[in-house]
């Protein structure tokens, strides 16, 4: 160890700030399909595949580039992970989510009872710009979310963008938070703890980052501060240091100095997404560096909590308030045109930031006043109820909602329950609209600013629902000062009207979605559509050739606000994408029967124009079309509607390709240009053929013949989509092998598929297959070999062959022992 080498105590802590802005549609509590993330459903799914999952099972390579171990980076580093991201992982990537929790439990065993995880303010609000109430709730929600997931109290809490002020730190200290992490240039002065000396100026990044410091707060409380090494953190994030694990390890240890008399903590802090998303294979560089430093005994790997217990802070510090790591102007990046931007659009300005914040501040203050007045009629203590509402966000079961209401209100009628929940949701979204990403990037028309305007739209809708007060026009007037750099985009008000307004969801729109999609999906009597429940009370489907008519009524319930209505609907589908759907609040059985009778009679007479008129008469302006469906279901229906057309396209393209291939080959052979029409047909046909082959586990020679055609005609291959398809095939087969690992047929088939994979003109992501192989090698291999299995020699050879193709060092894996890597 480093002590045996005669070195002073040296410690290493790498902190990863893992965070994604909440991307959910505020009305359905789900992320809708994001085409920019192709071939994944959305950005969260893509970044999970590149970063969050790989850091739970990261590879360490031997000298020949083969995998000799797979380890959890989370268990060896310090990390915070945003509550909104953890919530998404819990629902959509449960294996990665559980790996994060397990890593914290493991680190507690390794690090003297101190876990790797830190808490994070709830939705990445820039805390110095928040009012005290929001600061309080953000901190309490962040702590409670942490308690719920990690089953312990957090020792530390990460501040979004490290944006800091004393009031925020005082609230954190009051809630039991022991430390936070800041950038070096946020320190103002230092002096020995408890002494009478004046503070020595260390502004400009002059503070020694290898120590911990005590910050004494005006209230008499105190909190410890760690100041991360800025130069090395910068190199990790922006200077491609992660291209080599060896270079990374050397840079980390180069900071230690024999001239320092104290125990040295070398620590860095960067976005966790640096390790795999921003820098491909960055997780492997991290795993290698930590393993290398440990193996060479150059430092003890630790986390902040353990280091603080072993080496309590001996110096006091003053900080520079209203500063952040990512803005050299303090916190201007989130309130004004300070000059900070991504740099991607030279010549653009960010004048839009100030009017955007002013508009949201106005909305927050308007809503706060309404909330407090109405809240006093509903809640015992409205603001305390808001602080406790995190328990409902974490568990929306009927029992838990009732527990929250019983603890914070008196006896409520059902209508008052809806009001209570709507008030809480109004306040939740009034905080979500301050998510920092809305100001971080270059223009008001970006998806980040659009997202926070969606939260504002939800707030405005809830104000109208509870108070029957429309404040949208005044909000838009204030937004008009936020001018886009792209003239056609207009102002923030235009972005709201074009991008947000049509997304607003009511119970009527949910029922319209149900009615239209019911023609393509067989719903049970009770079903869920995102965060809504639908109970069908009456449903009548009539058909005539391609024309369909649906008449019915149902109960619709928001599982979030508990708003509920009985709603009737009529849908006329004239074929293709022509849907005409009317919905209205149920007006009684007599009115419902009259509507059904009139429209049914018109349908039986084939008077479709009369049906359109009757829908208009009975339902008024509450009319919806396919355009109004939620995006994923809309995409699914459009795929169904266009299938016949796409099949026709395929037949035409295939015929053009097959019937003209010989002639076009001659044209190419004599040096004449091949017509683009033929190349288009060839490219479409061959990509489709190859995708089907990879999905269906075709023979290698058939796949090779298609690949030769791509090369012959010099066609573009959909490498991203094809890789994703083939990867899913390989993962499915590897999972089947895991279930029956001694099945020689499945083992040899997997080996055959991997031989095909290695011959593809694109690189496959073998992450899951390698994980499963690692598991089999470290938990099952010896028992199979020693268990007297028939044809064990053949099985061993096939298993070794598969490992070679997966780039696994089987001998090294077997040397790890049962269960794999152990600290």
TrEMBL record:
Keywords: Carbohydrate metabolism. Residues 77-312 form the Glycoside hydrolase family 57 N-terminal domain. One of its GO terms (biological process) is carbohydrate metabolic process. The keyword NAD does not apply. Pfam families: DUF3536 (PF12055), Glyco_hydro_57 (PF03065). One of its GO terms (molecular function) is catalytic activity. PANTHER family: ALPHA-AMYLASE-RELATED-RELATED (PTHR36306), GLYCOSIDE HYDROLASE FAMILY 57 (PTHR36306:SF3). Belongs to the glycosyl hydrolase 57 family. This is Glycoside hydrolase family 57 N-terminal domain-containing protein. The lineage of its organism: unclassified sequences, metagenomes, ecological metagenomes.
């Amino acid at each position: 160890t480093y002590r045996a080498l005669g070195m002073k105590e040296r410690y290493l802590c790498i902190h990863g700030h893992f965070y994604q802005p909440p991307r959910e549609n505020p009305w359905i509590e789900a992320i809708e399909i994001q085409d920019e993330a192709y071939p994944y459903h959305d950005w969260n799914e893509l970044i999970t595949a590149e970063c969050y999952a790989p850091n739970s099972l990261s590879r360490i390579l031997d000298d020949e580039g083969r995998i000799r171990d797979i380890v959890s980076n989370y268990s060896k580093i310090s990390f915070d992970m945003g509550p909104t991201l953890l919530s998404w992982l819990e629902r959509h990537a449960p294996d990665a989510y559980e790996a994060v929790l397990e890593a914290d439990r493991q680190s507690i065993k390794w690090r003297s009872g101190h876990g790797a995880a830190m808490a994070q303010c709830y939705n990445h609000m820039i805390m110095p710009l928040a009012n005290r109430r929001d600061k309080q709730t953000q901190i309490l929600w962040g702590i409670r979310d942490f308690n719920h997931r990690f089953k312990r109290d957090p020792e530390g809490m990460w501040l979004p963008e490290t944006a800091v002020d004393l009031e925020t730190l005082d609230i954190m200290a009051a809630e039991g938070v022991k430390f936070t992490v800041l950038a070096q240039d946020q320190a103002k002065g230092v002096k020995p703890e408890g002494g009478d000396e004046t503070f020595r100026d260390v502004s400009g990044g002059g503070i020694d980052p290898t120590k911990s410091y005590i910050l004494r707060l005006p209230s008499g409380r105190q909190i410890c501060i760690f100041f991360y090494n800025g130069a090395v953190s910068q190199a990790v994030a922006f200077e491609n240091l992660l291209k080599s694990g060896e270079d990374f390890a050397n840079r980390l240890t180069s900071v230690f100095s024999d001239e320092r008399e104290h125990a040295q903590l070398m620590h860095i802090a960067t976005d966790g997404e640096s390790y795999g998303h921003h820098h491909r294979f960055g997780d492997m560089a991290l795993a290698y560096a930590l393993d290398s430093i440990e193996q060479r005994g150059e430092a003890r790997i630790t986390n902040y909590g353990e280091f603080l217990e072993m080496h309590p802070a001996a110096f006091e510090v003053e900080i520079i308030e209203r500063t952040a790591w990512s803005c050299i102007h303090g916190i201007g990046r989130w309130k004004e045109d300070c000059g900070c931007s991504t740099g991607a659009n030279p010549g653009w300005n960010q004048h839009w930031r100030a009017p955007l914040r002013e508009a949201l501040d106005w909305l927050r203050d308007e809503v706060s006043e309404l909330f407090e007045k109405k809240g006093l009629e509903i809640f015992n203590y409205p603001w305390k109820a808001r602080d406790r509402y995190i328990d409902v966000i974490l568990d929306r079961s009927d029992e838990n909602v009732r527990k929250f209401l019983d603890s914070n209100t008196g006896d409520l009628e059902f209508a008052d329950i809806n009001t209570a929940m709507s008030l809480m949701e109004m306040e939740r979204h009034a905080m979500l609209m301050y998510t920092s990403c809305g100001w971080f990037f270059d223009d008001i028309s970006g998806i980040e600013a659009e997202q926070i305007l969606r939260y504002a739209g939800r707030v405005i809708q809830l104000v109208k629902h509870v108070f029957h007060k429309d404040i949208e026009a005044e909000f838009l007037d204030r937004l008009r000062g936020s001018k886009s750099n792209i003239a056609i985009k207009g102002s923030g008000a235009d972005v709201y009207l074009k991008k947000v307004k049509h997304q607003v969801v009511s119970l009527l729109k949910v029922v319209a979605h149900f009615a239209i999609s019911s023609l393509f999906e067989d719903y049970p009597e009770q079903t869920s559509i995102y965060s809504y429940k639908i109970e069908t009370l009456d449903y009548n489907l009539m058909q005539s050739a391609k024309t369909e008519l649906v008449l019915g009524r149902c109960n619709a319930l928001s599982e979030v606000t508990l708003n509920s209505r009985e709603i009737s609907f009529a849908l006329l589908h004239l074929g293709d994408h022509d849907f005409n759907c009317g919905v209205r609040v149920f007006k009684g059985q007599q009115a419902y029967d009259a509507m059904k009778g009139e429209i049914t009679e018109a349908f039986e007479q084939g008077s479709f124009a009369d049906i359109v008129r009757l829908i208009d008469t009975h339902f008024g302006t509450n009319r919806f079309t396919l355009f109004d469906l939620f995006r994923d279901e809309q995409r699914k229906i459009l795929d169904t509607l266009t299938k016949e057309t796409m099949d026709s396209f395929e037949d035409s393209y295939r015929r053009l390709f097959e019937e003209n291939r010989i002639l076009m080959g001659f044209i190419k052979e004599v040096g004449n240009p091949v017509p683009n029409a033929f190349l288009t047909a060839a490219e479409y046909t061959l990509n489709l053929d190859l995708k089907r082959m990879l999905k269906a586990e075709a023979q290698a020679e058939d796949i090779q013949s298609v690949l030769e055609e791509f090369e012959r005609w010099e066609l573009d291959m959909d490498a991203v989509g094809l890789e994703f398809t083939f990867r899913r095939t390989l993962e499915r087969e590897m999972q089947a092998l895991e279930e029956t690992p001694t099945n020689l047929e499945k083992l040899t088939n997997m080996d055959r598929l991997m031989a095909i994979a290695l011959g593809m003109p694109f690189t496959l992501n073998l992450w899951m297959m390698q994980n499963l192989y690692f598991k089999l090698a470290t938990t099952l291999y010896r028992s199979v070999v020693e268990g007297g299995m028939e044809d064990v020699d053949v099985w061993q050879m096939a298993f070794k062959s598969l490992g070679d193709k997966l780039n696994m060092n089987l001998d090294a894996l077997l040397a790890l022992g049962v269960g794999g890597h152990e600290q």
